[in-house]
Amino acid sequence: MGPMESMKVVVVGTGYVGLTTGVTLAYLGHRVIGVDKDPEKLKRLRAGKSPIHEAGVQELLASLGERLAFTGRLSEAVGQADVILIAVGTPSKQNGEADTRYVEAAAREVAEGLLPGRAYCLVIKSTVPIGANRRVAHVMERILTERGVKAEVRIASNPEFLREGMALYDSFYPDRIVVGALDAEAVETVRRLYRPILEQTFEPPAFLPRPGGYGPPPLITTDPTSAEMIKYAANAFLALKISFINEIAGLCEKVGADVTEVARGIGLDSRIGARFLKAGLGWGGSCFPKDTAALIAVGQEYSYELPIVEAARTVNSRQRQRAVEKLQVALKGVRGRTIGILGLAFKPGTDDVRESPALDVIRLLLERGAHVRAHDPVALANARAALADMHGVSGEEWEVEFLEDPYQLADGADALVLATEWGEYRNLNLERLARLMRTPVFVDGRNLFAPEAVRRAGFTYLGVGR
Length: 466
Ligand code: UDX
Known about the structure:
- By secondary structure, the protein is of the alpha/beta class.
- The chain is built from 18 helices and 14 strands.
- The chain has two domains: about 10-220, Rossmann fold (3-Layer(aba) Sandwich), CATH 3.40.50.720; about 240-460, 3-Layer(aba) Sandwich (Rossmann fold).
């Protein structure tokens, strides 16, 4: 095996996916240019500052020197590139479909900058509707023809499976890499791009050691449409696995079983697997809500229903309502009560509040006339922005108090809802919290605590499914 071949890579979009991928590829030894339209982001990135809260990205960014540069000018950047990765956003349209306008705009700009006589590999990383690779190919061909430029463009779909908060880990130590392409050359290029990962020949970053027992990941090569489907099917399956355990959790509450015990009992069956069986307020974030909606929208195009995926979504929103109903019962109504929300991020380890269960719970509480206070170790600013333009049905302003100290949250409150299982919440002094409250009711929306410990501290404990 020879030394790694350093390729010239352009990554379009410096969001979670684009930035993590760019940083990883530069770390592996490629020359990477990250492209973004947002001048503020570019300024930060050029100063070596990560615009996203993602473990390790900041450290790597600062260490890559000339291997990673940033620009706002896509067409100028792509000329000399070997590989161009598209990692721009695909927000949901009204009907749930993933909106590819930014992907297509990027493809157009790329085509404007390609040089005659060169060969390029265009890799689509953005989560796009099934069949989008064909559209991108078409858009690019049209522009190249208009320009009279003969350049070879090979297109590959390369979906990502990065978890926020673990994005670098998932990027260095993936379970698998999927590439969908119609010609073998494109597959070969992607294989070369990821070779150090596929062979695990890179020196791990100090803060991200190779996990014990981790072997080289398989490369799944398939057609582009199947690659796109793999992405959606993976996310839909994970989402419905969580919804399944949440559905069972509700029944556990009725019959007096403990869902954490049930999850352990079924998870040890290797056909089921233990992960993604944590009952709670349900899933949020930038992927599961959007991708399940998009999959249903794809089905609709073909008049094909996806009742299992639909049910996963229904159960997921019911989880939020059920938490509020528990409060209503425990407090005999929430109107005029003061409820403290512990955790606003859609999961721990991130400042992302997109589709966060916490925000849904807050909305439901505000609609029912409760006063809401909220705490999060890192997501306060994002949550404030997300809730800023919320109004009641009659147009009144809704106020949420954002507090930096969980004990202030508890002071005189009627109930606490733990919505995000931040590790630091484990160290809360529960006795002190309980003493501060008007009525010590604790809704543990993530089953973070042992019920007994919370009860001993003086709380009424209400978990999920136990
Ligand atoms: C997910 C996928 O894991 C990733 O592969 C894909 O590329 C993008 O979507 P992410 O959205 O970052 O990643 O978060 P993830 O860790 O998967 O959690 C998603 C949501 O499910 C969170 O709100 C989390 O709190 C919730 N969850 C997860 C549960 O409620 N129970 C579980 O057992 C696991």
